[in-house]
Amino acid sequence: MKYTEKILKINPKSQEGLFLKGRIFLTKNEFEQALNLFQAYIKDNPQSAQAHYFAAMAHSGKGDIQQTKTELGEAIKLNPKWEQPRLVMANINLQGGNASEAVNQLNIILQNNPSSIQARLLLGDSYLAQKNMVGAAREYNTLIKYLPNNPIGYIQSGKVLLYQKQEDEGLAMLEKALSLQPNNVNALQLITAFHLSKKDTDKALERVQRQIQAVPQNPVFYGMLGSLYEMKKDVAAAETNMKKAIELNPNLPALQILLGDFYMRQHLADKAKKQYLVSVEKAPNALQPLMALGLIYERENNYKQAQEYYEKALKINPDFVPAANNLAFLYAQHGGNIDVALNLAQKAKEKMPEDPNVSDTLGWIYYKKNVPGTAIPYLKEASEKMPNQPVVRYHLGMAYYKNGNRELAKQELSAALNINPGFPGADEARATLDQLK
Fold it and tell me: Are 330 and 306 in contact (CB under 8 A)?
C-alpha cells in the first residue's frame, strides 16, 4: 500500500494508483472501497477489460450477482480471448442452475485453449448438472490424461460411474484418488456415502478406520468416524472421535459445530450450548451455531438471549429465513415490536412460501394484530401441513374464536389438547373452550 500511497500523493488522480489501491482493497475483502476505486478508474478508462473484471469481483464480494454478471460481460466483450472472466461467468451460471449457458462459455474457452484445466473441469461439472453423463465422462477422462497424478479427475469420473451403476469401476476411481492423495476428504466421503446408500454402515466404518491408519492426523476423518459411530448408536465412540477431531484441529469451525449438533441430537443442551459458544468464537459469521444457540435459549425461556442470537444471524445474512421466522415469533409473543415482527414474517414468507412454520408465524402475528380474517388462511395452511402440531392447531383455533367461528374454534382447540394436553398455550386453550360451552 505504501508504494500506491506514494503514487497517489504525487498525483491524486493517478490511474495506476487508483487501480492498484482497488486491487489491494479487494485482497482485504474491503469490497465497497475497492468498487469505488474501480468505478472511478472505469470512468476514465471504459475500455479496460481488467478494470471491469475486478469491479465484477468487488460486486461478487458484496453478493450482487446481477452486477457481477454485467461487469463480467463487459470484460468478455472487451477481451473475448481472456479466460478468467468467462470461467467466473460460467461458474456463476452453473451455480445459478443455468448449466447450458456455462457450457457455451466453456466451449469458447476450450476452442482457444484446449488444455485449460479449469475450463475442462467446469465443463465436466456442467454436463454432470445436465445429467449428460457421456459428455461429463469425456471431459473428466481428458482431465485425467492432462493430470494423471491429480485426484480431481478420478473423483469426478468416479461420480459419473457410480451414477451409471458401474459401482466397482466407480469405487476403483475413488480409491485411485485416495492413493494419489490419502488426505482427500471428498473421495473418502463419496466412498462412505456409497456404502451407506447400500445400508452397509459397517463397511463405511471399516473404510474410514483404514484411511485413518494410513493418515492418522486428518481431523475430518475422525469427525466422519464419529458420525458413523453415532449411526451405529455407539454414543461414547462417537463423542470420543468427534473430540479427537477437534483436538487435532481446534480451529476448524465445522468440527466444533459437528460436536455441538451431536450433543443436541443426544438432548444434552448444556454441553451443546458450551460447544456452540466455542463455535461462535472460532467462526463468528457461521449461521448454524448462532441459530442453534437461539433455539437452546428459546427452549430455556431465555427469550432475550435467544433474540440476540437470531438478530446476530440476521445481521450476517438478512435473508436467513429460519432466524427471521423465529425472531418474528419471539417479537410477537414476548413484547417486541409487532410491526417489526410482521415485516420479518412477511419477508420470510416471500423467501419460503411453502414452509408451514413460516405460515404459522405470519398467521399468528396477524392474529396478534387483531385481524383474524387475514390470519386464518395462513394458519389453516400450516395446520393442514402439520396436523399433529398442537401449537399450530391452537393458533388456528384462537383465530377462529376471535373471528366468531365458534364451532371451528372448538374443533381446533380440542384437537390441540388431545394431541398434547401440556403444550405451551394449553391453559388459554382450555379457558377459551370453557367460554365456548
Answer: yes
